[in-house]
């Protein structure tokens, strides 16, 4: 009798373990499948930080009077701060309350650096399109040129 009682007890424990195993597998599967589902959640924060393996901040995205992206060296000193800037494959644009700066290496416009104040006056070092006032003809200056424009985009001075 003692052996039969022990065998019965073992079978009950075995059935219980099988039930627990099945529940664990189903629960794990549900967690895995629900974790893979796409969500339309929005993540909001005051600051995002990129840390290196040693826990030092290497980059931050934050907002103080507008969005800013800041990169840091190994010592934690800010190296570059992008604020009011736009970067593309062939251009870099920075702007602020005083005006803007555009560096362009586009194939169509050619290499140029444009500095424009808030009133519209501009200076272009490099290729620029201008209209010759005497003939009304459009002309593209060479990369080795400097053109100064007034606020109405009329040429004030150019060389060569």
Write a structural description.
The chain has a seven-stranded antiparallel β-sheet, with no helix packed on it. Strands 1-2-3-4 form a four-stranded antiparallel β-sheet, with no helix packed on it. It has a two-stranded antiparallel ribbon with strand order 10-11. It has one helix at 2-36; strands at 47-51, 57-63, 67-72, 78-83, 85-87, 91-96, 99-104, 112-117, 122-126, 129-131, 138-140, 146-149, 155-159. 6% of the residues are buried. It has three domains: 1-39; 42-83, no CATH class; 84-160, no CATH class. It is of the alpha+beta class. The model has no long low-confidence stretch (mean pLDDT 85). Helices cover 22% and strands 41% of the residues. A hairpin with a 5-residue loop joins strand 1 (47-51) and strand 2 (57-63).
Comma- or semicolon-separated keywords:
single chain, 160 residues, alpha+beta, 3 domains, 4-stranded antiparallel beta sheet, 41% strand, rod-shaped
Q: Note the total helix count.
A: 1
N-end to C-end Cα span: 113 Å
Give the mean pLDDT. Answer: 85
Helix percent reads 10-25%
**How many strands, what sense, and barrel or not for the largest sheet?**
7 strands, antiparallel
Spatial shape = rod-shaped
Rg estimate, integer Å? 33 Å
**How big a fraction of the residues is strand?**
35-45%
Overall tally of structural domains? 3
> Which consecutive residue ranges, at least 5 long each, have pLDDT under 50?
none
**Number of beta-strand segments:** 13
Major sheet: arrangement of strands? 5-6-7-8-9-12-13
Report the order of strands and helices.
Answer: HEEEEEEEEEEEEE
Instruction: Give me the secondary-structure category.
Output: alpha+beta
């Amino acid at each position: 009798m003692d052996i039969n009682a022990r065998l019965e007890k073992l079978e009950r424990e075995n059935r219980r373990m099988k039930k627990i195993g099945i529940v664990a597998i189903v629960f794990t599967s549900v967690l895995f499948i629900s974790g893979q589902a796409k969500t339309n959640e929005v993540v909001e924060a005051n600051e995002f930080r990129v840390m290196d393996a040693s826990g030092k901040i290497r980059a931050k995205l934050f907002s103080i009077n507008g969005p800013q992206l800041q990169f840091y060296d190994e010592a934690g000193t800010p190296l570059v701060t992008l604020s009011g800037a736009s970067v593309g494959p062939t251009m870099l644009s920075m702007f602020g309350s005083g005006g803007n700066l555009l560096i362009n290496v586009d194939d169509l416009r050619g290499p140029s650096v444009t500095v424009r104040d808030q009133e519209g006056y501009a200076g272009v070092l490099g290729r620029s399109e201008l209209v010759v006032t005497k003939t009304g003809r459009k002309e593209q200056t060479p990369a080795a040129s400097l053109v100064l424009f007034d606020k109405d985009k009329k040429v004030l001075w150019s060389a060569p």
